[in-house]
């Protein structure tokens, strides 16, 4: 028994039958629901088991969901579950210490620069102490332990014998750092950098890497890192 056409409800014979969208159609009846343009298996679009052309295919729009009591309850339950999971994760990771940071080339460069700056500052402090004649004093009697102030003397006119004056340490040789002159103005971007103006003289300059130097601005006395392409050797 031959099926009926879904459009005209007449018998569809095998020579003119189109089987699509779980229905049977005549070739002439298989057309758009809106403009009635005849369709085929290549250009039709189905919506709710009805054929449409590309121009009249229904557009699906988003609908607003009302805040019903059930939706509000589900929303509150989802929020509480998120808080519980967050608290469990926090308790699980508490006390595990800092997270591991990848040792990238940029971090290696920053670490190397900081080490060089620390080494330079250490040598500067050492030279200052050497110039000032500061040296740690050791007690004359090592077994005496910690230093204790002398007891008050009853003779207020007691004149102790003056100790021999220690000669000052010899001055260190002049710094071997190079001198440079700024060819551009530069404003420090970080705390470990130094600002200068065009024409300033940079003293005690030491090369850190290809792009950065460390030195002291003669005009301001400030010390820090400076870009190597902003200065030229004197």
TrEMBL record:
<keyword id="KW-0488">Methylation</keyword>
<keyword id="KW-0862">Zinc</keyword>
<dbReference type="GO" id="GO:0005925">
    <property type="term" value="C:focal adhesion"/>
</dbReference>
<keyword id="KW-0206">Cytoskeleton</keyword>
<feature type="domain" description="LIM zinc-binding">
    <location>
        <begin position="3"/>
        <end position="63"/>
    </location>
</feature>
<dbReference type="InterPro" id="IPR036028">
    <property type="entry name" value="SH3-like_dom_sf"/>
</dbReference>
<dbReference type="GO" id="GO:0051015">
    <property type="term" value="F:actin filament binding"/>
</dbReference>
<dbReference type="Pfam" id="PF00412">
    <property type="entry name" value="LIM"/>
</dbReference>
<dbReference type="Pfam" id="PF00880">
    <property type="entry name" value="Nebulin"/>
</dbReference>
<dbReference type="GO" id="GO:0005856">
    <property type="term" value="C:cytoskeleton"/>
</dbReference>
<protein>
    <recommendedName>
        <fullName>LIM and SH3 domain protein 1</fullName>
    </recommendedName>
</protein>
<dbReference type="InterPro" id="IPR001452">
    <property type="entry name" value="SH3_domain"/>
</dbReference>
<dbReference type="InterPro" id="IPR001781">
    <property type="entry name" value="Znf_LIM"/>
</dbReference>
<keyword id="KW-0963">Cytoplasm</keyword>
<dbReference type="Pfam" id="PF00018">
    <property type="entry name" value="SH3_1"/>
</dbReference>
<keyword id="KW-0009">Actin-binding</keyword>
<dbReference type="GO" id="GO:0006811">
    <property type="term" value="P:monoatomic ion transport"/>
</dbReference>
<keyword id="KW-0597">Phosphoprotein</keyword>
<feature type="domain" description="SH3">
    <location>
        <begin position="175"/>
        <end position="234"/>
    </location>
</feature>
<keyword id="KW-0677">Repeat</keyword>
<dbReference type="InterPro" id="IPR035630">
    <property type="entry name" value="Lasp1_SH3"/>
</dbReference>
<comment type="function">
    <text>Plays an important role in the regulation of dynamic actin-based, cytoskeletal activities. Agonist-dependent changes in LASP1 phosphorylation may also serve to regulate actin-associated ion transport activities, not only in the parietal cell but also in certain other F-actin-rich secretory epithelial cell types.</text>
</comment>
<keyword id="KW-0728">SH3 domain</keyword>
<dbReference type="GO" id="GO:0046872">
    <property type="term" value="F:metal ion binding"/>
</dbReference>
<dbReference type="InterPro" id="IPR051759">
    <property type="entry name" value="LIM-SH3_domain_protein"/>
</dbReference>
<keyword id="KW-0479">Metal-binding</keyword>
<keyword id="KW-0440">LIM domain</keyword>
<keyword id="KW-0406">Ion transport</keyword>
<keyword id="KW-0007">Acetylation</keyword>
<feature type="region of interest" description="Disordered">
    <location>
        <begin position="131"/>
        <end position="177"/>
    </location>
</feature>
<dbReference type="InterPro" id="IPR000900">
    <property type="entry name" value="Nebulin_repeat"/>
</dbReference>
<keyword id="KW-0813">Transport</keyword>
<dbReference type="GO" id="GO:0005938">
    <property type="term" value="C:cell cortex"/>
</dbReference>
